[in-house]
Design brief:
10 helices, alpha/beta, single chain, seven-stranded mixed beta sheet, 29% helix
Length: 398
Amino acid sequence: MAEVFLKKGAGRSFKAGGPWIYDNEIERIEGSFENGDVVELHDFDGYFLGRGFLNMRSTIAFRILSRRRESVIDEAFLEQRVRDAWNYRKEVIDTSACRVIFGEADFLPGLVVDKFSDVLVAESLALGIDRLKCVILDALVKVLAEDGITIRGIYERSDAKVRLKEGMEPSKGFIGAEFDTRVEIVENGVRYIVDVQDGQKTGFFLDQKENRAAIHKLCRGKKVLDCFTHTGSFALNAGIAGAEGVLGVDASQFAVDRATENAALNGLSERVKFQCADVFDLLPSLEEAGERYDVVILDPPAFTKSRNSIKQAVKGYREINLRGMKLVKNGGYLCTCTCSHFMDPELFAKTIREAATGAHKRLRQVEFRTQGPDHPVLWAADNSLYLKFYIFQVCEEK
């Protein structure tokens, strides 16, 4: 096993509990290795720090698997990691559809696995874990079977461009036998058809499950606008909760078609409608037309995936929140979020505050929430906290 030695003074974030070592923190490597191998990590003075994956093609050169010297990275080790991840989910969330493995937060760096009923969808984003993904998935199928859950198929959605930074090409397709990739799930009483082959990411955004449930109490008998609706999840939750009328908006016709299908599946077609439009264009036109809503929901995609574009992203978040607030009736509610971990909680709050000032609105915070517990936040791993979700009451200035 090759040994990696840090520069003197390097690895401060890692030593504080972080999961990574960057390439510019490494002093030398002793022994032969191939990128993706498991190696030992040592401080500059030889002190043992852990074992993990090494990939010198990547800026993130080392990803920790275990900080214990006695750990042996074998099939039994990986199965225990999987078992721990599953046992945790059983305690904290409805597991009929949930994220079973969440990368570094489950100590399996670079691997995401979502469970949609009896189907698994895997996303592998790091070279080392990519080599072991089939071993891990076999272990997961075994562990689920022990609880009487039979998995009928596994689909890989490792088609993110970030794989190129690891020296890997994007990959997509069946792992094992082919199966029908349209899967029905039920979440918060809402039925969905999830397209694991062609839907965004792994097919459905599970991280908002409990946030979607949180809007139910606000929507009964109300007029609701759901922006960036994707496959209609917030809109359908509003409908199930008894909203009088819901408009869901998304720029993707594919998403709108899926959302419309899901509305019909739930018997909500009369009260929940969907429109294909650019939200940035639609909100000013709705305001000009005099439209007002009891509840406005803003669930945009990440406007930034790097620190370099954060200023432009702030402008986008400020604009949609300002426009959204103007469409809320006095005393109504704004539900707004960001899924970019580069928009830290302080910056997101500042951006919303500026939007409220620009809209001449007063905000009363009802709730602040993050991603569901099946997407656990690993402290010291800043990238694992990415979803910030607010519910505000919007009041006219008095």
